[in-house]
Amino acid sequence: MHRLFILLWLFLLVGCRPTAPTESIHEAAKSGNLELVQRHIKAGTPLNKKDNTGWTPLHWAAMRGHASVVEALVAGGADVRITGLMNKTALNLAVENQRPAVVRILQAAGSRERGRPLVDGGLGVSEVLDNN
Length: 132
Prior knowledge:
Layout: H1 2-15, H2 25-31, H3 34-43, H4 57-64, H5 67-75, H6 90-96, H7 100-114, H8 125-130
């Protein structure tokens, strides 16, 4: 009886998870569709998966300047250190495309991952300090 209860509980637990939307999370991030990105996060869609261009949803949102989507992805567990096409991080893309709001979000997220604020605003000195 106990096993049956556990199996039933697991079935209900798995069955209660929201299903992922039909539009990909990459497309949602690219277009800045925050609601769709949030639905993907709730459904457990992998946030760090690269698409056929080699970019994650975070790369697309950062490049396009969708700050609210970037915040949602970071809060949902997206890895800000992943490199994509041409070995660039989402922060690299935000800087290159002059997206200051996104740059601030990604710098803050990167400093939290490292356990301390970047002393140089993310320009490289912190890397040197960490390696000495």
